[in-house]
Amino acid sequence: MKVILSLCGAILVAALALFALKLSLREDHFGKPFTGLPAAAIPDIVSKPDTFLGKPVAIHGKLQRQCPATGCWFFLTDPGDLKAQELKVEMGDTTPRLPSRLGKVAHVEGQLIKFGDGYEFIGVAVTFE
Length: 129
Fold this sequence. Notes:
Blueprint: H1 2-24, E1 29-31, H2 42-47, H3 49-52, E2 56-66, E3 73-77, E4 87-90, E5 105-115, E6 118-128
Parallel strand pairs: 4-6
Antiparallel strand pairs: 1-6, 2-3, 2-5, 3-4, 5-6
């Protein structure tokens, strides 16, 4: 009986260890692979959007808001100035579902497009720190 209980305990410990390992190795990259696009700062894009319109660039920023239903869009601010203007990033065409990553830093590749009276960054790849 002790052998059976010890064996069950060992199996349980091994299963918990595998589960913890899987959580720690969780994939936080979504969309296409990164291609090494030139970096652009969010404050520069927000202040001079016509300069970046339609040009593929890489951005990074801190998530301030995210789509509550599927996470497909989010707003980023410059990590050094969280009171700066936000840039909306839309990932819905590439990745319709993203886990909630509020407060995390995101690295995104894509391009700025005209959207209604404003602009929005269409992402094709994103990694969360």
